[in-house]
């Protein structure tokens, strides 16, 4: 949702190229990987047995190096318990999807950089990285990291919050109804 708002604002009001917008979506994919791995690491030890078995069964068809992910996770469970298996699951998630995200990024930037030559039908061309608004990508990355960080913090189920601008309490009210019953209070501070 944050990336959509950033991209829409950039395209409508800041004159972003389509390639900058595509790059922001790629950044969102890349920058959401570490928070997702943290969520996997936190949640895995607390899965009930049926959910854990379902998760493991879903990994049976995934393999690398001739070993299924299900086998890796079952071995980690046997050797190190749920916390050890959680670390394995999170690191495997990061390595697989991280490699995919980086390859996807190379594709986005390669096609974007050569889009002018491709559109003009030229067979030989220099890459033009000017199709990307680099300062805008930096700002978008900061916004995405801030939103992901807020989500990770809210996952910890705070009981009292204070923020400037009511962004936090708005997120809790709109997107995190499970926190409503456990919250003792929230306030907004404006300087």
Strand content: 5-15%
Unreliable stretches (pLDDT < 50, length at least 5) are none
What would you call the shape? flat
Distance between the termini: 28 Å
- Averaged pLDDT: 85
Question: What is the number of strand segments?
Answer: 4
Q: Main β-sheet, in a few words?
A: 2 strands, antiparallel
Indicate the structural class.
mainly alpha
The helix/strand order is HHHEEHHHEHE
**Strand order in the sheet with the most strands:** 1-2
Determine Rg (CA atoms, Å). 21 Å
User: How much helical structure, as a percent, in the residues?
Assistant: 55-70%
Total of helices: 7
What's this model, at a glance?
The protein has 191 residues and is mostly helical.
Describe this structure in words.
The protein has 191 residues and is mainly α. Helices cover 68% and strands 6% of the residues. The chain has helices at residues 2-13, 18-43, 49-58, 69-113, 115-120, 134-155, 167-175; strands spanning 63-64, 67-68, 160-163, 185-188. The strands form two sheets. It has a two-stranded antiparallel sheet. β3, α7 (167-175) and β4 form a beta-alpha-beta unit. α1 packs antiparallel against α6, α2 packs antiparallel against α4 and α2 (18-43) packs parallel to α6. The longest helix has 45 residues, at 69-113. The radius of gyration is 21 Å and the shape is flat. The two termini are 28 Å apart. The mean pLDDT is 85.
């Amino acid at each position: 949702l944050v990336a959509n708002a950033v991209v829409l604002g950039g395209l409508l009001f800041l004159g972003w190229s389509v390639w900058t917008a595509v790059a922001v979506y790629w950044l969102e994919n890349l920058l959401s990987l570490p928070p997702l791995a943290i969520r996997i690491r936190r949640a895995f030890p607390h899965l009930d047995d049926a959910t854990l078995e379902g998760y493991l069964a879903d990994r049976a068809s995934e393999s690398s190096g001739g070993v299924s992910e299900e086998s890796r996770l079952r071995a980690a469970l046997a050797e190190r318990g749920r916390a050890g298996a959680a670390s394995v699951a999170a690191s495997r998630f990061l390595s697989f999807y991280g490699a995919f995200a980086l390859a996807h990024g190379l594709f986005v930037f390669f096609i974007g950089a050569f889009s002018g030559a491709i559109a003009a039908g030229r067979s030989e061309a220099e890459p033009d990285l000017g199709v990307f608004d680099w300062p805008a990508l930096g700002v978008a990355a900061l916004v995405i990291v801030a939103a992901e960080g807020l989500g990770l913090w809210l996952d910890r189920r705070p009981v009292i919050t204070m923020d400037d601008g009511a962004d936090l309490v708005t997120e809790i009210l709109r997107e995190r109804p499970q926190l409503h019953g456990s919250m003792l209070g929230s306030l907004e501070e404006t300087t």
